[in-house]
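task queued by scheduler; priority normal; single chain, no ligands, no partner chains; default sampling; output format set to structure tokens
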Amino acid sequence: MLSLKEIQAPVAEHIVKFEDTFRSSMKSRVPLLDQITHYIMKRKGKQIRPLFVFLSASVTGGINEKTYRAAAMIELLHTASLVHDDVVDDSNLRRGYFSINALWKNKISVLVGDFLLSKGLLLSLENNDYQLLQLVSNAVREMSEGELLQIEKARRLDIEEKIYFEIIRKKTASLIASCCACGCASSGADQETIEKMRLFGEYTGIAFQIKDDLFDYESGNSTGKPSAIDIKDRKMTLPLIYLLNHSGFSEKRWIVNTVKNHNTDPDRVSELIVKISESGGITYAREKMLGYRQMAINLLSEFPENIYRHSLEQLVIFTTERNK
């Protein structure tokens, strides 16, 4: 597997230039907003989503100014969603840094998220990028629906596998699908090609989220024990759903009772994780992840072979082999 730096190499100069475009897209005349957006820029992550945009554009036509706007729109949307998510989850940390709501409280955080979202929408309108606006707006709608569906189902802990995939398709995969579709659209590709690239992103995003779910069952760095964060948050992930589907009535009651009422009891949670592992739930989830990864790579193989397609293939592999 290539490193992220090696994967970025064919579009590295564009990623560097994009940082300046993105920074300028967040500017405001309000000093407090500039202070907060400067803090956000200092703690940016791996820039995976802009990378999907630039590589998708390169595979299907080429990078231009519209591609930069597409990447900025996606990143503004993504950043807004993270700010709002931290408020919803009452989270004080994001990537090891204090979250916006931890430093500036919820009211300011919600307004900052709204500001970033509006900047993304205005960026498209000011440049008549209506196709990009439609693609990004669809992702906003699906992400909101996915989050609400997950909250609704978490109350009753009755998520079936079909519903689980619907949640992660909307909540996570829709944004990566939007990255790939927007990059493709910015290059001037036709509708059939855009839809093919969107579907590639959707398959990749589903595999990405299953990988995230599997982190819950892997040993932590300091304790040597699984983090079980999703279980503590009463989230029904694929390995847990698999166990429920292969359990009898009394064991199901024990599992649901553990997740609902004993999710902070380390011994009970450890016992649940052992049951999940012994049932084959973790293996099943990993096989599903690899299946979606292969579907994404198969779609990509329909495009001409070049360094950009190779990097995009490696990026799909990276998202499912990463260690955090």
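post-processing summary
- Strands lie at 93-94, 97-98.
- Residues 4-321 form a domain with the Farnesyl Diphosphate Synthase fold (CATH 1.10.600.10).
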